[in-house]
Amino acid sequence: MEVRGKVIAVVPVQTGEGRNGLWRKQDYVIEYEQSSQYPRKMMFNLWGDKIEQYHIQEGQLIRVSFDIECREHNGRWFNDIRAWKIEPDEEAPAGTGFVQAPPPPEFPPMDESSDLPF
Q1: Exposure string over 27-36, b if 16+ CB within 10 A, otherwise e
Q2: Which of 34, 68, 104, 105 fits as disulfide partner to 95, beta carbons 3.0 to 4.6 Å?
Q3: pLDDT in 10s for each residue of the chain, 118 residues
Q4: Collapsing DSSP states into helix, strand and coil, what is residue 7?
Q5: Half-sphere exposure at residue 56, Cβ-oriented, CA atoms within 13 angstroms
Q6: pTM for this entry
Q7: Strand 61-73 to strand 14-18: parallel, antiparallel, or no bridges (unpaired)?
């Protein structure tokens, strides 16, 4: 999936230690559909070396490619929006952000010889 918009918040880096060793994570908030009456916001995160690789700053217009993952912890479920590619979106004017999901499946053509009303 992909979203385009303006970075409105950069959350401080979080660190910890898990069974695979030390980890680092940073969250970012992007505002998209800025031209609508109710602009939408989404928080996504980067892990490890990708934090320095993309060096995202507040106010940037970016295009984020991401996956949505879900995990369970102590009987509760949490969604995680993990970015895997960030690109500058300099050519798009502010307020034109969009979310793009994969195209819907194609259905076979309708049989117009049927006399059913639907």
Answers
A1: ebbbbbbbee
A2: 34
A3: 999 999 999 999 999 998 989 999 999 999 998 778 888 999 999 999 999 999 999 999 999 999 999 999 999 999 999 999 999 987 655 444 444 445 555 655 655 665 555 4
A4: strand
A5: 31
A6: 0.73
A7: unpaired
